[in-house]
TrEMBL record:
Name listed for the protein in its UniProt record: TIGR02444 family protein
Species of origin: Photobacterium sanctipauli
Xref: InterPro entries: CHP02444
Highest taxon above the source species: Bacteria
Cited Pfam families: DUF2390
Amino acid sequence: MQQGFSADAFWQFSLEHYSKTGVQAACLSLQDNYLGNVNLALLLLWLDSQNMPLPPSRLNQLQTALTRSDKLLASYRHLRKQLKPSVSKPEYEQLLGFELLLERSQQQDLIAKLNQQPIPHKVDTVSPTGNVDAYCQLLNVPQSLIAQLQGLPG
């Protein structure tokens, strides 16, 4: 019997990947300029790193699973940005910390949805960026930004 994906392992991958040079800026550009979901992109990168391609139907299911949490995160992010000029640095850090909790909760939702279906099979011949490429193509993201998302040197 196959074990499901671990939300903790995905979170650790995300923290490590996000800290790579250029990745944070690329993620924010994906979010702000292309209306992409950073956690979904990170999940797809994580699956790519494990050579686990998703069929388009699974990608659609994951996108649908984000509807509720995306609205919550967008509202909170907007509020945080509005409050930034009127709160102290420690208060703003608390706002960022809470947003990080919301992000982690969204990642847990993604993993729960992913684990509802059979685990994708590892393959040897898949493009190492197939999942994130497919998602970014839906959003008309340029290749240069995709490379940045992947943490590749510019």
